[in-house]
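Researcher: I'd like a structural prediction for the single chain below. Treat it as a standalone chain; there are no partners to consider.
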Amino acid sequence: MEKEIDKKNTYVLKEDENIGAVQIADDVVAMIASLAATEVEGVSAMAGNITNELMSKVGMKSLTKGVKVDVLAGNVTVDLSVTMEYGYNIPATCQKVQLKVKNAIENMTGLTCSDVNIRIAGVNIKKES
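Model: Treating it as a single chain, here is the predicted structure.
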């Protein structure tokens, strides 16, 4: 029964009866999505105002804030909430985020990413000094 609890939010990426299995937690997939999204120019932060520079200094909960990941039978669906920078084309920037997140998840995990849904949580207006 304890093994089932440990595997609740993990997914097998590769299994070899001679060596063992490689598993990944859904929080790791969410972290990959979050980091990829904030690397796109025009994305200010994930929901919760966590910028890419701050991510290395905060905990796991903050890294995955604004990201929801569902993994079913090796297929990933990602829902992101992002804050955009003012002045960027929202549809074009979101398309870049979708491609970057999809490619990052597929390249790093080997899982298939079918959907990357984005919700614009706000627009950041930088004040000039």
